[in-house]
Specification:
By secondary structure, this protein is α+β, with helices and mostly antiparallel strands. 25% of the residues lie in helices and 30% in strands. The radius of gyration is 18 Å and the shape is globular. Strands 1-2-3-7-6-5-4 form a seven-stranded mixed β-sheet, with helices on both faces. A five-stranded antiparallel β-sheet has the order 11-10-9-8-12, with no helix packed on it. β6 and β7 form a beta hairpin.
Length: 253
Amino acid sequence: MYYHSSKTTFIGKKVEYLSSCHSTNDIAADKVRSGQYLPGEIIITDEQLSGRGQRGRSWETEKGANLTFSLILQPSFLKATEQFLLSQAIALGLWHYLSARTAGVGIKWPNDLLIHSRKVAGILIENTLRGSRLQVAVVGIGVNINQVDFENPRATSFSQALQTKLDCHSEFEQLLGALEVFYKLLEKREFGTIREKYLQCLAGYGQERFFTHGQETFRALITGVSETGRLQLQTPAGPAEFGIQELTWHWDD
């Protein structure tokens, strides 16, 4: 059972706990469609049966061992063209929460969280637009807290990094506080600060990595991320930008 946060001003002030559900993002989206929600409201579960990740991938999670929840936000101060800033702010909140207690934390473009090149958390944001602005965002977050067995060899958990079992309820409180810090920066329109910090935390920034685009695999230098969230590379053919659906990242190890 999870309860409302005592350490934040609005994120997590209303929490709906479900022991099991198909998808917290779907439940949050239903609330948005009905208008029955509060900004900062959270739907959290111990077991998500049909969790989704980027590119339609499923999110593997062990019942009761991790944090799996959706956060409803109302970032109407952002233009549609600025929506990647929300993704950056959420990723930075997770980065802040993790890096406060362990080294080797990075953000793998666009918004996976890594500890020593192993995925520990993922984000899936589904935005609703009104005209040229964001209206509501459903932010799905999955963080591996105590899980130790993974089908994916590139996955890890926070407890594995810290080498101690963690209390999910305490971790939930700490994570919400970190998310609110960076969301408030977004509300204050500290866009330059968010973009600069994101690059500082970006895995592989200023380094070469292998990528596949279409039928071509190549090694390219990661030079930045555009304001709309496209990865900027210096490829053998020259500078180029790619969206998340256009590029596959290959690990070196």
